[in-house]
Write a structure and sequence with these properties.
Length: 338
């Protein structure tokens, strides 16, 4: 925290290899302030929808132009692209991401797709152009307006709702669901899996991806204060898969995309730095430095396996699964002790 704040406030600067700064973390002790620990518990116990909305609003409190500066210019994804070669462009990687998702869900014209946490409309744009009706959910007002303009401007089949996924009640279940880079904002996997079952048809598939950590809630105090407030949590793959299996889903595919996320964040960091002067003029020196530190730290984390990234495809079966209660889970835990 101290080193990170020293960089933000201009007491130190980094010229050259940003990785050298992050390598020094191994020799520093991370002490999460007690107040921050209590704040996390408070946020976790609050009304989920309200808390998530506040956290998202805080991170995206700048405007579209700031975020779109480093992102790919084709679909504007704020999650990893898929690189078939390290020297591909970010735009090509974004195209591969859509191709992979489209094939995994076996999408066809006329199908109804739910897009949860839509970013800047890449899924609505790609799938809508291929005849798929996309219902977009977002809790970011600026994102909702941006995507609505895309749908209207390109005359795409689709609609946008300013609504949290956990509150969404469709009249008819969807054929498939896509959830890209959003699971980090929904730490209650049990509720997430139960809701996913409710919104999908039997045989419907769900495709999700996201950044992951071996331990749930393993987020640094600096990240919690300056980047992702609230209960933002890197995906715990084992816990997500367990809840999906408990709730009647069959796991079709799990792919490791750690290298892809590293290459994505590397390109984002380079594009951010190339626009340094304009970003500082438009949004201030500290906002630029926060995001520069955030992006380069992501590159380092994926490179050193401190973070991973995964792509998961599951299918809703006809059985709702065992859905064990908390007492039953505790009993299983005790029974597994040796």
């Amino acid at each position: 925290m101290g080193v990170g704040q020293a960089y933000l406030f201009g007491d130190i600067d980094v010229d050259g290899d940003f990785g050298a700064l992050f390598n020094a973390r191994e020799n520093l002790q991370e002490e999460v302030p007690l107040r921050q620990k209590f704040q996390f518990v408070y946020d976790y116990l609050r009304t989920v929808t309200r808390m998530i909305a506040e956290a998202i609003g805080d991170h995206y409190g700048l405007d579209d132009e700031f975020f779109l500066t480093p992102l790919d210019k084709r679909f504007r994804f704020y999650s990893q692209g898929l690189f078939q070669r390290p020297d591909e462009t970010l735009e090509e990687a974004a195209e591969h991401k859509m191709e992979t998702m489209f094939a995994a869900l076996d999408l066809k014209p006329g199908m109804r797709l739910l897009d949860i946490g839509c970013g800047w409309g890449g899924v609505a744009q790609y799938c809508g152009a291929r005849g798929v009706h996309v219902t977009t959910l977002t809790i970011a007002p600026n994102g909702a307006r941006y995507i609505q303009r895309i749908i209207e401007g390109k005359n795409l089949p689709g609609q946008v709702f300013l609504q949290d996924f956990l509150d969404h009640e469709p009249e008819v279940p969807y054929d498939h669901v896509v959830n890209l880079g959003v699971i980090e904002h929904i730490p209650n996997y049990r509720r997430y899996a139960r809701k996913m079952w409710d919104v999908l048809k039997p045989g419907g598939r769900m495709c999700l991806d996201g950044s992951a950590a071996v331990e749930k809630f393993a987020v640094s105090s600096f990240t919690r204060k300056y980047i992702w407030r609230g209960t933002h949590t890197y995906m715990s793959l084992q816990d997500v898969l367990a809840e999906l299996l408990y709730h009647g889903f069959a796991v079709l595919d799990v792919s490791n995309e750690t290298q892809d996320y590293k290459l994505t964040m590397l390109e984002w960091a380079k594009r951010l730095e190339s626009a340094k002067e304009d970003l500082i003029v438009g949004w201030g020196d500290q906002n630029y430095h926060v995001f520069r530190l955030y992006l380069w730290s992501g590159v380092h984390a994926f490179e050193t396996n401190s973070l991973q990234a995964y792509h998961v495809v599951v299918e809703r079966t006809s059985s709702p699964g065992p859905r064990p209660s908390i007492p039953r889970r505790f009993g299983q835990f005790l029974g597994n002790l040796r």
